[in-house]
Design brief:
two-stranded parallel ribbon, about 35% helix, globular, seven-stranded parallel beta sheet, single chain, 13 strands, alpha/beta
């Protein structure tokens, strides 16, 4: 790291849910000298020590290596969730764009690459116990998101073999939420036709309790702190699971909202999602729903021990904050996080 003026960190996907938190925490870190945020559209938001550059990582003409020149670390967060009906488009952005980032890191001789992988990279696993980072990362092949995350895990295997001088860290967080991400996540997963009553689950007659629908969440700021620690910890390498307790299921949501969980067969829930997705009423695909039902629970011991990472918020606190933001149409001063009131 640059000792005289502090380290220089480049963050891709810097204006989204995770990117805004990572940029803010890095800009507040006294050992970070400057942050360069990359995004397709430069925001009005301007945190301390931060510069911006407009770049589309899916473009073959992007001078990524030039932007990375002189950086002490690249934190790669850029990702496109949509269009879910056109997986070739997300593949070009997410996979081919990421491969160009990896190549540019090597070309610019950046010593550290921190990559946003995901729980979605994991192969199907247990819901009654937690697995560590050695669990296979072959994803759920029918879901584009999981397929792309798993492919990049294999790509990084090759990258690490060919570039042993680059310290590569792979973050595998659970589902990430914060108040400011509520409007963006509504657009990504729920779409404009999402019933407004879902913003107030306590008004629903019941909560669907689908077998296997048990997952882990994390506040985006807590995840961002793990990214900051990974940049700052010179011995940190390899994958790190990131999540908070307790796991989220219909029982927990029912306790939070005072709504009664009602068992719903997987086939019924999937059929409803598939019909809405097929009619372009719902952006989230039934293939992603299939994947969520199969994702394992993660053991986060490695991040706690090696990074000294501790999530500040419980899963209940994360969801309460997110639901408040959902009701209020909360957002932030970047294009991906623009706010929108629930109808």
């Amino acid at each position: 790291m640059s000792s005289a003026t502090g380290s220089r960190i480049v963050v891709t996907g810097a204006t989204g849910n995770v990117g805004t938190s990572v940029v803010r925490l890095l800009s507040e870190d006294p050992e970070v000298g400057s942050v360069l945020g990359l995004a397709r559209r430069i925001p009005a938001w301007s945190p301390p020590k931060t510069e911006w550059a407009a770049v589309d990582l899916a473009s073959e003409q992007a001078d990524t290596a030039g932007l990375f020149a002189g950086a002490d670390a690249v934190v790669h967060l850029a990702w496109a969730f949509q269009p879910t009906h056109d997986p070739a488009t997300t593949w070009r952005t997410n996979v081919l764009g990421s491969l160009r980032v990896f190549e540019a890191v090597a070309a610019a001789r950046v010593p550290t690459l921190v990559h946003a992988s995901s729980v979605g990279a994991y192969s199907p696993g247990p819901k009654d116990r937690a697995v560590d980072e050695s669990w296979p990362t072959h994803g759920w092949p029918d879901a584009a998101y999981c397929r792309e995350k798993a492919y990049l895990e294999r790509s990084l295997d090759i990258f690490e073999r060919d570039h042993p001088d680059v310290r590569v860290v792979r973050m595998r967080p659970g589902f990430l939420f914060k108040r400011e991400s509520a409007s963006e996540q509504r657009r990504i997963f729920g779409g404009k036709f999402l019933p407004g009553a879902l913003a107030r689950p306590e008004r629903l007659p019941f909560l669907p309790d689908v077998p296997g629908l048990r997952m882990q969440v994390l506040h985006t700021d807590d995840a961002a702190d793990a990214y900051r620690l990974a940049v700052r910890t010179p011995d940190a390498r390899g994958p790190y699971n990131l999540a908070t307790d307790p796991p989220v299921d219909a029982e927990l949501l029912g306790e939070m909202t005072g709504t009664r969980p009602v068992r719903l067969p997987r086939t019924a829930a999937r059929s409803a999602i598939a019909a809405a997705w097929g009619l372009h009423l719902l952006p989230a695909s039934p293939h992603l729903f299939d994947a969520v039902l199969r994702l394992p629970l993660m053991d986060c011991t490695r991040a706690r021990v090696e990074l000294g990472w501790r999530p500040v918020r419980t899963a209940t606190e994360v969801l309460e904050e997110f639901l408040r933001g959902f009701r209020e149409g909360a957002g932030a001063a970047t294009e991906p996080l623009r706010g929108r009131k629930v109808g």
